[in-house]
Design a protein that fits this description.
The chain has nine helices and six strands. Helix 1 packs across helix 2 and helix 7 packs parallel to helix 8. The structure holds ligand LCYHOYRF. Keywords: Cobalamin biosynthesis, Isomerase.
Length: 208
């Protein structure tokens, strides 16, 4: 029988991971609350140089946390983001919502001539004011959110805008960073549902 020698204690795996990230990543330039979020984002992708591409408004973590403490929902562009959010960490049993699979979404996408992920945001309108938005997959969703807000729509408390990819990902994140919303982004092509869920989990947690 083959027996491998490896760490089997989950808490110890986390402890060693976070210690490694703190030793290897250049977190010094970030405020403490953002550094704590960055550690968890790096943990989700295994790339310590992710920190070089993280950009945010100074109060984003505080505003997002205040919103969660006030019971705000977390609105997600993809089920993958929503699934990655650890419900027991959320301070007020906050709703975690993804409207991508709502039966109205395909019709809205056809009507608006856009992707399903972008069209699904139209169904956020009555929950968006003061919400925490977590976009981890779709650049079109992030662009659509910015268009809705620019047109006078409800304003979220904070936007974790971390879509991944080659078409529109970098551009949508640059547009968010240039907006007047509280934001957290990873500049460039990197991002994704796991990193975005990890950012929400870090903000929702009291400890690392
Ligand atoms: C163009 C799209 C991109 N998707 C990427 C990467 C991943 N997507 C996955 C999955 C399972 C889903 N992607 C959809 C959101 C789907 N992806 C798109 C769209 C065609 C358009 C979005 C956009 O450009 O803004 C989008 C469909 C739409 O009409 O909106 C998904 C809904 C497709 C589907 O299954 O129906 C689905 C999300 C399901 C959910 O969680 O709710 C991947 C797992 C790969 C795959 O299996 O296809 C992967 C996950 C990445 C992640 O971490 O989230 C890109 C690379 C982001 C790409 C957009 C940018 C680009 O450069 O192409």
């Amino acid at each position: 029988m083959v027996v491998y020698e490896y760490e089997k204690d989950g808490a110890e795996i986390y402890r060693q991971s976070f210690a490694t990230i703190r030793a290897e990543a250049e977190l010094g330039g970030l405020p403490d609350d953002v550094a704590r979020v960055a550690v968890r984002m790096i943990h989700a992708c295994g790339q310590v140089d992710l920190v070089e591409d993280i950009a945010c408004s100074p109060a984003v973590v505080q505003r997002a946390r205040e919103a969660l403490d006030a019971g705000a929902p977390v609105l997600c562009d993809a089920q993958m983001v929503a699934s990655g959010i650890t419900r027991r960490r959320l301070p007020k049993d906050n709703d975690v919502l993804c409207t991508l699979d709502d039966p109205r979404t395909p019709g809205l996408a056809a009507e608006l001539g856009t992707t399903r992920t972008a069209a699904a945001l139209e169904l956020w309108r009555d929950r968006l004011d003061g919400a925490v938005v977590a976009i981890g997959n779709a650049p079109t969703a992030l662009f659509h959110l910015l268009e809705m807000v620019a047109a006078g729509g409800p304003r979220p408390a904070a936007v974790l805008g971390i879509p991944v990819g080659f078409i529109g990902a970098a551009e949508s994140k640059d547009a968010l960073a240039a907006s007047d919303l509280e934001f957290l982004v990873v500049r460039g092509r990197r991002g994704g549902s796991a990193i975005t869920a990890a950012a929400v989990n870090a903000i929702a947690s009291d400890a690392e």
